[in-house]
Write a structure and sequence with these properties.
4 domains, two-stranded antiparallel ribbon, elongated, single chain
Amino acid sequence: MPPVTRRAAKALKPIGIQKSLGTRSDWAENDIRQCLSNYYKMRKQRRHPEKERCNYSRQHEIQFANHLVEMHRQGEIRDNISSYVVPEIQRRLNGQYGTSFTEDSIRGKYYALRGETKLYISFKRRGTGMGWDSQKFTWLMDDSQWAAMEQVNPKYGKFRNDCTVYHLLEEVFVNQGATGDFSSGFENELRTSADEREMETTARLARGKGSRSSRDEEAEIEGRGPKEAKGKGGKGKRKSGDGSGCSPMSTASGSVTDRYLRVCESIESLVSRKKSSSTSASVSSPDKNRSGRDPSKKTDYEIAMDQLKLIENVNFMAKYKAAEILKDKQELDVWNLAASDADRITWMKLKGCFPPDSQEPPPPPPF
């Protein structure tokens, strides 16, 4: 009961007032306390009238999903959905079907569909050997396969029927996992593999002794609600040593197994992209090597080596010394000035390529 006002307190002070009002009736018109209680109840009802419960049909949900996909492709979905997404979908649905959906019901439906779509994405990544009916938007699995999936998570059984809505919304919510949204339905699953449990334990130990688990963080976020969670997590300074918002292996951004698979997929895509680019480069220019130089065109040093090989009556050691000297750019320019083998032998004499005790080579035969 709310606090009694000053006027009501004055009315309650006289002790004999109830005696003068007569006996209490069934409608409590002679009971001042009961009258005050009824008054505050009526005022509360007028201030907060009971809202009509909105029921969404299957067609409503499909149109809801279509509108979200359209907004997502146009880049109109922002972090604060109350500014544009919620009123726009409310206007479209009420205008199309003549309903009276409120903004609160649209917002609640958005978060409900987001959670179910995240669960649907984890269901797809868990399943192996599943068939898909593109006409009815249903999964083709026998009862034993469904039983195995429901052992992993009992909520997977809801995907036995039409999955049109989740199939559409997968495009919208598939990449939303940095704030722990993806793990809302995935972290509560039973781990059936020892490798997954080991990976989960390793990741949790890597976070440090004083850190909380992802389940505790998600329970706190769900308890605060979407608005309060956004208000506390969206503003303020980040801790310098906490990399949970940006690290791909942070346990707050989904399960370890799922992040491991995403990392593997990204690595495979990068490797395949590298291979395709290198293949296209080799196909477009097969005559060029890695440096981009045409192998048929020789450098000045290679031409000088060919000329050095053709000089007759010169031993290998003299040619080796000349080859070492020709690595100098200036000496190579002088070598290129030689017009005949006799000039080249003269250059080799000046550079000391021949030992002093050896017999000088005879001059080349005249032409």
